Amino acid sequence: MKLRKGRAFGAVTVLAALIAGVVSCNVVGRTEINNGQPVTSGSSSAETTEATEPITEEQPDKVVHVVAAGDNLIHYSVFKNAEALAGGVGYDFKPMYSEVKYLVEGADLAILNQETIISQSNPIRGADGGQLIFNSPPEVADAVIDLGFDVFTMANNHLLDMGTDGLEESIRFWNQKAEENNLTVLGAYLNEEDANNIRVREVNGVKIAFLAYAHHINGFDSLLDDVPLRVIKNEEEDVIERQIKEADQLADVVIVSAHWGEDDTTVVTDDRIELANKMVDWGADVILGCHTHTAETMEWIERDDGTKGFVYYSMGNFICAQTDNFNVVGEMPDFDIVIDGNTNELRLENVGCIPTIIHYESEFSNMKIYPYSKYSPELAERHGLPYAVPQGSYPEFGWDVINRIIDEQIPAEFRKLDK
User: Fold this and answer.
1) 3-state secondary structure of 190
2) Phi (first) and psi of residue 335, to 5 degrees
3) What's residue 33's pLDDT?
4) Per-residue DSSP letters for 155-193?
5) What DSSP state is assigned to residue 36?
6) Is 98 helix (H, G, I), strand (E, B) or coil?
7) pLDDT of residue 55
8) Rounded distance between C-alpha atoms, residue 180 and residue 168, angstroms
9) What secondary structure, in 3-state letters, does 197-246 show?
10) Residue 32: what are its φ and ψ, rounded to 5°?
11) In whole angstroms, what is the distance from residue 85 CA to residue 79 CA?
Protein backbone atom coordinates (compact mmCIF):
# COMPACT_ATOMS: atom_id res chain seq x y z
CA MET A 1 0.00 0.00 0.00
CA LYS A 2 1.57 3.28 -1.10
CA LEU A 3 1.54 5.98 1.55
CA ARG A 4 2.49 9.61 1.71
CA LYS A 5 5.75 11.34 2.42
CA GLY A 6 6.77 13.44 -0.53
CA ARG A 7 10.44 13.57 0.32
CA ALA A 8 11.31 11.87 -2.97
CA PHE A 9 14.83 11.98 -4.31
CA GLY A 10 15.68 11.32 -7.95
CA ALA A 11 17.21 8.17 -9.35
CA VAL A 12 21.01 8.10 -9.20
CA THR A 13 22.66 8.57 -12.59
CA VAL A 14 26.04 6.87 -12.62
CA LEU A 15 27.39 7.81 -16.08
CA ALA A 16 26.65 10.98 -18.03
CA ALA A 17 26.36 10.87 -21.80
CA LEU A 18 29.69 11.37 -23.52
CA ILE A 19 29.79 12.54 -27.14
CA ALA A 20 33.08 12.26 -28.98
CA GLY A 21 34.01 14.47 -31.91
CA VAL A 22 34.87 13.23 -35.32
CA VAL A 23 38.51 12.53 -36.01
CA SER A 24 39.39 12.89 -39.70
CA CYS A 25 42.47 12.98 -41.96
CA ASN A 26 42.84 14.67 -45.33
CA VAL A 27 39.25 15.89 -45.20
CA VAL A 28 37.85 17.35 -48.39
CA GLY A 29 34.35 18.74 -48.17
CA ARG A 30 32.19 19.79 -45.17
CA THR A 31 30.70 18.38 -41.97
CA GLU A 32 26.91 17.83 -41.84
CA ILE A 33 24.45 16.63 -39.22
CA ASN A 34 22.50 13.48 -40.08
CA ASN A 35 20.00 12.07 -37.49
CA GLY A 36 21.83 13.90 -34.74
CA GLN A 37 25.28 12.46 -35.58
CA PRO A 38 28.16 14.31 -37.28
CA VAL A 39 29.14 12.98 -40.75
CA THR A 40 31.75 14.25 -43.18
CA SER A 41 31.10 14.54 -46.87
CA GLY A 42 33.86 13.91 -49.35
CA SER A 43 36.90 11.65 -48.89
CA SER A 44 37.58 11.03 -45.14
CA SER A 45 38.07 8.39 -42.47
CA ALA A 46 36.10 9.02 -39.25
CA GLU A 47 35.47 7.40 -35.86
CA THR A 48 32.25 8.11 -33.95
CA THR A 49 31.55 7.31 -30.30
CA GLU A 50 27.83 7.20 -29.63
CA ALA A 51 26.30 8.67 -26.46
CA THR A 52 25.96 6.10 -23.73
CA GLU A 53 22.60 5.46 -22.09
CA PRO A 54 22.22 6.72 -18.47
CA ILE A 55 22.53 3.89 -15.99
CA THR A 56 20.29 3.92 -12.91
CA GLU A 57 21.49 2.08 -9.82
CA GLU A 58 18.62 0.66 -7.73
CA GLN A 59 18.88 1.42 -4.03
CA PRO A 60 17.62 -1.11 -1.47
CA ASP A 61 14.48 -0.36 0.53
CA LYS A 62 14.75 0.42 4.22
CA VAL A 63 12.56 -2.00 6.19
CA VAL A 64 11.52 -1.98 9.86
CA HIS A 65 9.50 -4.91 11.20
CA VAL A 66 7.23 -3.69 14.02
CA VAL A 67 5.23 -5.48 16.70
CA ALA A 68 3.18 -3.84 19.45
CA ALA A 69 1.12 -4.92 22.44
CA GLY A 70 -1.78 -3.48 24.40
CA ASP A 71 -2.36 -2.93 28.09
CA ASN A 72 0.30 -4.38 30.36
CA LEU A 73 -2.21 -4.42 33.22
CA ILE A 74 -0.67 -5.76 36.43
CA HIS A 75 -3.60 -6.94 38.55
CA TYR A 76 -3.16 -8.40 42.03
CA SER A 77 -3.22 -11.95 40.69
CA VAL A 78 -0.63 -11.09 38.06
CA PHE A 79 1.95 -9.94 40.58
CA LYS A 80 1.03 -12.77 42.97
CA ASN A 81 1.93 -15.19 40.15
CA ALA A 82 5.23 -13.35 39.75
CA GLU A 83 5.79 -13.56 43.51
CA ALA A 84 5.24 -17.34 43.44
CA LEU A 85 7.57 -17.72 40.45
CA ALA A 86 10.28 -15.87 42.38
CA GLY A 87 9.96 -18.29 45.29
CA GLY A 88 8.67 -15.64 47.65
CA VAL A 89 11.68 -13.31 47.24
CA GLY A 90 10.77 -10.41 45.00
CA TYR A 91 8.88 -10.95 41.73
CA ASP A 92 9.66 -12.81 38.53
CA PHE A 93 7.35 -11.84 35.67
CA LYS A 94 9.54 -13.21 32.89
CA PRO A 95 8.04 -16.74 32.68
CA MET A 96 4.56 -15.27 32.10
CA TYR A 97 5.81 -13.56 28.93
CA SER A 98 8.02 -16.41 27.69
CA GLU A 99 5.64 -17.78 25.02
CA VAL A 100 5.55 -14.46 23.12
CA LYS A 101 9.21 -13.55 23.58
CA TYR A 102 10.18 -14.80 20.12
CA LEU A 103 7.69 -12.37 18.56
CA VAL A 104 9.04 -9.35 20.44
CA GLU A 105 12.70 -10.30 20.04
CA GLY A 106 12.17 -10.95 16.34
CA ALA A 107 10.99 -7.39 15.68
CA ASP A 108 13.20 -4.46 14.75
CA LEU A 109 10.91 -2.25 16.83
CA ALA A 110 8.58 -3.33 19.65
CA ILE A 111 6.08 -1.02 21.38
CA LEU A 112 4.19 -1.65 24.65
CA ASN A 113 1.48 0.27 26.48
CA GLN A 114 2.58 0.23 30.13
CA GLU A 115 -0.79 0.60 31.85
CA THR A 116 0.37 0.75 35.47
CA ILE A 117 2.84 3.09 37.13
CA ILE A 118 5.89 2.01 39.12
CA SER A 119 6.32 3.97 42.35
CA GLN A 120 8.63 2.26 44.82
CA SER A 121 7.74 4.64 47.66
CA ASN A 122 4.11 3.41 47.60
CA PRO A 123 2.58 0.00 48.33
CA ILE A 124 2.10 -2.50 45.51
CA ARG A 125 -1.49 -2.43 44.33
CA GLY A 126 -3.38 -4.32 41.65
CA ALA A 127 -7.06 -3.34 41.79
CA ASP A 128 -7.45 -5.57 44.84
CA GLY A 129 -10.07 -4.84 47.46
CA GLY A 130 -12.51 -3.52 44.88
CA GLN A 131 -10.53 -0.33 44.20
CA LEU A 132 -9.24 0.13 40.63
CA ILE A 133 -5.89 1.45 41.80
CA PHE A 134 -2.59 0.13 40.45
CA ASN A 135 1.07 0.36 41.39
CA SER A 136 3.48 -2.29 40.16
CA PRO A 137 6.83 -3.60 41.39
CA PRO A 138 9.95 -2.56 39.44
CA GLU A 139 10.51 -6.14 38.31
CA VAL A 140 7.73 -5.54 35.76
CA ALA A 141 10.04 -3.15 33.93
CA ASP A 142 12.91 -5.64 34.07
CA ALA A 143 10.70 -8.32 32.52
CA VAL A 144 9.31 -6.31 29.61
CA ILE A 145 12.73 -4.81 28.84
CA ASP A 146 14.20 -8.32 28.84
CA LEU A 147 11.32 -9.37 26.59
CA GLY A 148 12.64 -6.97 23.97
CA PHE A 149 10.35 -3.93 24.00
CA ASP A 150 12.02 -0.70 22.87
CA VAL A 151 9.22 1.87 23.23
CA PHE A 152 6.93 2.32 26.24
CA THR A 153 3.83 4.51 26.18
CA MET A 154 2.43 5.69 29.51
CA ALA A 155 -0.56 7.86 28.62
CA ASN A 156 -3.46 6.18 30.42
CA ASN A 157 -6.15 6.69 33.04
CA HIS A 158 -4.14 5.16 35.93
CA LEU A 159 -1.29 7.68 35.94
CA LEU A 160 -2.45 9.40 39.15
CA ASP A 161 -3.37 6.27 41.13
CA MET A 162 -0.52 7.14 43.53
CA GLY A 163 -0.94 10.91 43.26
CA THR A 164 1.34 13.40 41.58
CA ASP A 165 4.38 12.33 43.64
CA GLY A 166 3.85 8.75 42.52
CA LEU A 167 3.55 9.82 38.89
CA GLU A 168 6.71 11.91 39.02
CA GLU A 169 8.56 9.01 40.62
CA SER A 170 7.33 6.67 37.89
CA ILE A 171 8.37 9.06 35.11
CA ARG A 172 11.85 9.40 36.59
CA PHE A 173 12.06 5.62 37.05
CA TRP A 174 11.28 4.99 33.36
CA ASN A 175 13.55 7.82 32.22
CA GLN A 176 16.41 6.14 34.08
CA LYS A 177 15.55 2.80 32.48
CA ALA A 178 15.52 4.54 29.10
CA GLU A 179 19.04 5.89 29.62
CA GLU A 180 20.35 2.53 30.77
CA ASN A 181 18.73 0.42 28.05
CA ASN A 182 18.37 2.72 25.02
CA LEU A 183 14.59 2.89 25.32
CA THR A 184 12.02 5.44 24.21
CA VAL A 185 9.48 6.45 26.87
CA LEU A 186 6.58 8.85 26.41
CA GLY A 187 3.02 9.77 27.39
CA ALA A 188 3.64 11.33 30.82
CA TYR A 189 6.08 14.19 31.20
CA LEU A 190 7.90 16.14 33.89
CA ASN A 191 6.89 19.51 32.41
CA GLU A 192 5.59 21.28 29.30
CA GLU A 193 9.01 21.39 27.66
CA ASP A 194 9.37 17.65 28.12
CA ALA A 195 5.90 17.10 26.63
CA ASN A 196 6.84 19.08 23.53
CA ASN A 197 10.09 17.17 23.05
CA ILE A 198 8.85 14.77 20.39
CA ARG A 199 10.50 11.39 20.70
CA VAL A 200 12.16 10.19 17.48
CA ARG A 201 13.93 6.85 17.21
CA GLU A 202 16.01 5.77 14.21
CA VAL A 203 15.73 2.10 13.28
CA ASN A 204 17.46 0.60 10.23
CA GLY A 205 17.94 4.09 8.85
CA VAL A 206 14.26 5.02 9.27
CA LYS A 207 13.30 7.89 11.59
CA ILE A 208 10.15 7.07 13.57
CA ALA A 209 8.32 9.63 15.74
CA PHE A 210 6.14 8.59 18.68
CA LEU A 211 3.25 10.44 20.33
CA ALA A 212 0.80 9.35 23.06
CA TYR A 213 -2.48 10.78 24.36
CA ALA A 214 -4.98 9.88 27.11
CA HIS A 215 -8.77 10.18 27.27
CA HIS A 216 -8.90 10.97 30.99
CA ILE A 217 -7.16 10.24 34.31
CA ASN A 218 -9.99 8.69 36.31
CA GLY A 219 -11.29 12.07 37.44
CA PHE A 220 -7.99 13.08 39.02
CA ASP A 221 -7.10 15.43 36.17
CA SER A 222 -7.31 18.53 38.39
CA LEU A 223 -4.36 17.27 40.45
CA LEU A 224 -2.13 18.29 37.57
CA ASP A 225 -3.26 21.92 37.75
CA ASP A 226 -0.77 22.91 40.46
CA VAL A 227 2.28 20.91 39.36
CA PRO A 228 4.52 21.05 36.28
CA LEU A 229 3.71 17.43 35.33
CA ARG A 230 2.05 17.15 31.92
CA VAL A 231 -0.27 14.63 30.29
CA ILE A 232 -1.82 15.55 26.94
CA LYS A 233 -5.47 14.53 26.68
CA ASN A 234 -7.48 13.64 23.59
CA GLU A 235 -9.65 16.74 23.95
CA GLU A 236 -6.61 18.98 23.31
CA GLU A 237 -6.94 18.64 19.57
CA ASP A 238 -5.01 21.82 18.84
CA VAL A 239 -1.98 20.41 20.67
CA ILE A 240 -2.35 17.01 19.03
CA GLU A 241 -2.59 18.55 15.57
CA ARG A 242 0.49 20.68 16.17
CA GLN A 243 2.52 17.78 17.51
CA ILE A 244 1.56 15.35 14.74
CA LYS A 245 2.41 17.91 12.06
CA GLU A 246 5.73 18.65 13.75
CA ALA A 247 6.49 14.93 14.08
CA ASP A 248 5.68 14.50 10.40
CA GLN A 249 8.43 16.98 9.56
CA LEU A 250 10.95 15.42 11.93
CA ALA A 251 10.54 11.79 10.91
CA ASP A 252 9.74 9.40 8.08
CA VAL A 253 6.94 7.73 10.06
CA VAL A 254 4.58 8.89 12.82
CA ILE A 255 3.12 6.37 15.30
CA VAL A 256 0.46 7.55 17.76
CA SER A 257 -0.67 5.73 20.89
CA ALA A 258 -4.32 6.61 21.58
CA HIS A 259 -5.76 5.71 24.97
CA TRP A 260 -9.50 6.01 24.31
CA GLY A 261 -12.92 4.34 24.33
CA GLU A 262 -15.01 2.74 27.06
CA ASP A 263 -14.03 -0.26 29.18
CA ASP A 264 -15.26 -3.69 28.12
CA THR A 265 -16.86 -2.60 24.86
CA THR A 266 -16.11 -3.70 21.32
CA VAL A 267 -18.09 -0.98 19.53
CA VAL A 268 -15.91 1.64 17.87
CA THR A 269 -17.71 4.88 18.64
CA ASP A 270 -18.07 7.79 16.22
CA ASP A 271 -15.90 10.11 18.30
CA ARG A 272 -12.94 7.74 18.02
CA ILE A 273 -13.45 7.28 14.29
CA GLU A 274 -13.57 11.06 13.90
CA LEU A 275 -10.39 11.60 15.93
CA ALA A 276 -8.59 8.79 14.12
CA ASN A 277 -9.43 10.39 10.77
CA LYS A 278 -8.17 13.76 11.99
CA MET A 279 -4.92 12.22 13.23
CA VAL A 280 -4.29 10.51 9.91
CA ASP A 281 -5.10 13.72 8.00
CA TRP A 282 -2.61 15.60 10.20
CA GLY A 283 0.12 13.06 9.42
CA ALA A 284 -0.19 9.98 11.64
CA ASP A 285 0.74 6.79 9.79
CA VAL A 286 -0.17 4.21 12.46
CA ILE A 287 -2.52 4.59 15.44
CA LEU A 288 -2.25 2.04 18.26
CA GLY A 289 -5.45 2.11 20.32
CA CYS A 290 -5.55 1.09 23.98
CA HIS A 291 -7.81 1.19 27.07
CA THR A 292 -10.99 -0.80 26.31
CA HIS A 293 -9.41 -4.09 27.51
CA THR A 294 -10.98 -5.74 24.45
CA ALA A 295 -9.70 -6.60 20.99
CA GLU A 296 -11.35 -4.30 18.46
CA THR A 297 -11.39 -3.96 14.71
CA MET A 298 -8.82 -2.13 12.55
CA GLU A 299 -8.82 -0.38 9.19
CA TRP A 300 -7.10 1.79 6.62
CA ILE A 301 -7.99 5.49 6.62
CA GLU A 302 -7.55 7.34 3.33
CA ARG A 303 -6.40 10.94 3.06
CA ASP A 304 -7.63 13.42 0.50
CA ASP A 305 -4.50 12.87 -1.61
CA GLY A 306 -5.16 9.13 -1.82
CA THR A 307 -2.46 8.08 0.67
CA LYS A 308 -3.43 6.11 3.77
CA GLY A 309 -2.79 5.55 7.45
CA PHE A 310 -3.78 2.54 9.55
CA VAL A 311 -5.62 2.40 12.87
CA TYR A 312 -5.88 -0.41 15.41
CA TYR A 313 -8.86 0.80 17.43
CA SER A 314 -7.94 -1.32 20.46
CA MET A 315 -5.24 -3.92 21.01
CA GLY A 316 -6.91 -5.18 24.17
CA ASN A 317 -4.89 -6.52 27.08
CA PHE A 318 -1.35 -7.83 26.88
CA ILE A 319 -1.61 -9.34 30.35
CA CYS A 320 -4.30 -9.06 33.03
CA ALA A 321 -6.35 -11.08 35.52
CA GLN A 322 -9.77 -10.00 34.32
CA THR A 323 -12.65 -12.47 34.28
CA ASP A 324 -14.78 -11.77 31.19
CA ASN A 325 -13.91 -13.87 28.16
CA PHE A 326 -13.40 -10.85 25.90
CA ASN A 327 -10.75 -9.48 28.29
CA VAL A 328 -8.32 -12.37 27.78
CA VAL A 329 -8.19 -12.27 23.96
CA GLY A 330 -5.88 -9.51 22.73
CA GLU A 331 -3.99 -8.36 19.66
CA MET A 332 -0.32 -7.86 18.86
CA PRO A 333 -0.10 -5.54 15.84
CA ASP A 334 2.45 -6.82 13.33
CA PHE A 335 3.53 -4.86 10.24
CA ASP A 336 6.46 -3.65 8.16
CA ILE A 337 7.48 -0.04 7.60
CA VAL A 338 9.11 0.25 4.17
CA ILE A 339 10.89 3.32 2.83
CA ASP A 340 11.44 2.97 -0.91
CA GLY A 341 15.15 3.13 -1.66
CA ASN A 342 14.70 5.13 -4.86
CA THR A 343 11.71 7.38 -4.20
CA ASN A 344 11.91 7.66 -0.39
CA GLU A 345 8.13 7.06 -0.24
CA LEU A 346 6.62 5.26 2.74
CA ARG A 347 4.67 2.02 2.49
CA LEU A 348 3.10 -0.14 5.18
CA GLU A 349 3.26 -3.80 4.23
CA ASN A 350 2.11 -7.10 5.74
CA VAL A 351 -0.27 -5.19 8.02
CA GLY A 352 -2.24 -7.25 10.52
CA CYS A 353 -2.20 -8.58 14.06
CA ILE A 354 -1.42 -11.74 15.99
CA PRO A 355 -4.26 -12.79 18.33
CA THR A 356 -3.13 -13.58 21.88
CA ILE A 357 -4.72 -15.43 24.79
CA ILE A 358 -4.04 -14.70 28.46
CA HIS A 359 -4.12 -18.11 30.11
CA TYR A 360 -4.62 -18.89 33.77
CA GLU A 361 -6.00 -21.87 35.63
CA SER A 362 -7.72 -22.40 38.97
CA GLU A 363 -7.26 -19.52 41.41
CA PHE A 364 -5.38 -17.60 38.70
CA SER A 365 -2.43 -20.00 38.77
CA ASN A 366 -0.05 -20.80 35.86
CA MET A 367 -0.64 -17.41 34.21
CA LYS A 368 0.95 -16.96 30.79
CA ILE A 369 0.39 -15.14 27.47
CA TYR A 370 0.15 -17.30 24.34
CA PRO A 371 0.00 -16.37 20.68
CA TYR A 372 -2.92 -18.06 18.92
CA SER A 373 -0.55 -20.41 17.06
CA LYS A 374 0.78 -21.86 20.34
CA TYR A 375 -2.53 -22.13 22.17
CA SER A 376 -4.75 -25.21 21.93
CA PRO A 377 -8.23 -26.56 22.69
CA GLU A 378 -6.69 -28.53 25.56
CA LEU A 379 -5.31 -25.39 27.20
CA ALA A 380 -8.63 -23.63 26.63
CA GLU A 381 -10.43 -26.44 28.49
CA ARG A 382 -8.15 -25.88 31.51
CA HIS A 383 -8.70 -22.11 31.59
CA GLY A 384 -9.80 -20.87 35.01
CA LEU A 385 -12.01 -18.04 33.78
CA PRO A 386 -15.36 -19.91 34.15
CA TYR A 387 -14.54 -20.59 37.81
CA ALA A 388 -12.90 -17.29 38.74
CA VAL A 389 -13.95 -15.45 41.88
CA PRO A 390 -15.44 -12.95 41.55
CA GLN A 391 -16.99 -14.27 38.37
CA GLY A 392 -17.32 -12.06 35.33
CA SER A 393 -20.48 -11.41 33.37
CA TYR A 394 -19.23 -13.48 30.43
CA PRO A 395 -17.71 -16.61 32.00
CA GLU A 396 -18.14 -18.98 29.03
CA PHE A 397 -14.79 -20.12 27.69
CA GLY A 398 -13.28 -22.61 25.30
CA TRP A 399 -11.63 -22.90 21.91
CA ASP A 400 -14.90 -22.03 20.18
CA VAL A 401 -15.29 -18.86 22.28
CA ILE A 402 -11.76 -17.72 21.40
CA ASN A 403 -12.40 -18.25 17.69
CA ARG A 404 -15.75 -16.48 17.87
CA ILE A 405 -14.15 -13.40 19.45
CA ILE A 406 -11.44 -13.37 16.78
CA ASP A 407 -13.98 -13.82 14.00
CA GLU A 408 -16.14 -11.00 15.30
CA GLN A 409 -13.40 -8.49 16.15
CA ILE A 410 -10.49 -9.02 13.76
CA PRO A 411 -11.19 -8.72 10.01
CA ALA A 412 -10.08 -11.85 8.17
CA GLU A 413 -7.54 -10.03 5.98
CA PHE A 414 -5.65 -8.84 9.06
CA ARG A 415 -5.51 -12.10 11.05
CA LYS A 416 -2.09 -13.65 11.52
CA LEU A 417 -2.99 -16.96 13.08
CA ASP A 418 0.17 -18.90 12.26
CA LYS A 419 2.88 -16.63 13.67
Assistant:
1) coil
2) -160, 165
3) 35
4) -STTTTTTHHHHHHHHHHHHHHHHHHHT-EEESSBSSHH
5) T
6) helix
7) 64
8) 18
9) CCEEEEECCEEEEEEEEECCCCCCHHHHHHCCCECCECCCHHHHHHHHHH
10) -125, 165
11) 10
Cis peptide before 390 (omega within 30 of 0): yes
Query: How many C-beta atoms lie closer than 10 Å to residue 118's C-beta?
Result: 24
Q: Pick left, alpha or beta for residue 200 (phi over 0 → left; psi -120 to 50 → alpha; otherwise beta).
A: beta
pLDDT of amino acid 130: 80
Say if CB 406 and CB 332 are below 8 A apart. Answer: no
CA distance 178 to 342: 34
Is-contact 102 348, C-beta < 8 A? Answer: no
Question: What phi and psi, each to the nearest 5 degrees, are found at residue 123?
Answer: -65, 150
Judge contact between 45 and 25, C-beta under 8 A: yes
pLDDT of residue 51: 54
Do 70 and 257 touch, CB atoms closer than 8 A? Answer: no
> 319: closest CA among 329, 308, 333?
329
Contacts (Cβ under 8 Å, ≥6 apart) of 156: 71, 113, 115, 187, 214, 259, 290, 291
Helix residue ranges, H only, 15-162: 76-85, 94-97, 101-105, 139-147
Range 62-414 classified under CATH 3.20.20.80: no
How much is the pLDDT for 344? 94
φ, ψ of residue 276 to 5 degrees: the values are -60, -45
Residue 21 confidence (pLDDT): 38
As a whole number of angstroms, the distance between CA 187 and CA 168 comes to: 12
pLDDT of residue 88: 82
Low-confidence ranges of the chain (pLDDT < 70): 1-56
pTM, entire model: 0.88
